[in-house]
User: Fold this.
Amino acid sequence: QLVESGGGLVQPGGSLRLSCVASGFSLDYYSIGWCRQAPGKEREGVGSLSSADGSTMYASSVKGRFTISRDKAKNTVYLQMNSLEPEDTAVYYCAAERRALATMYAGDFSAWGQGTQVTVSS
Assistant:
């Protein structure tokens, strides 16, 4: 089970850190994805972290602003979001798959959290 937290309302230019805690399994051998879905839009990959070497990849729209990290001791992954824009408003999901490589494709993940709402507005 994956459980996200940390969403909320933030002003443009602000920051949030989302957390995703795994229970019932270890994330050590799982690559992680963060995806988001805005109203009326398809779910899109935001970023991903490889279980093999810890490398990350990001969508061009968030690159340089968002950072994925992992705390193995806490079995938790994070999405640090800086310089938030109204266009970042969406429900954010973490996902996991037992695979070595990171992937931006939501269809590659079989385990999903329930999502957390992020709203960027003044």
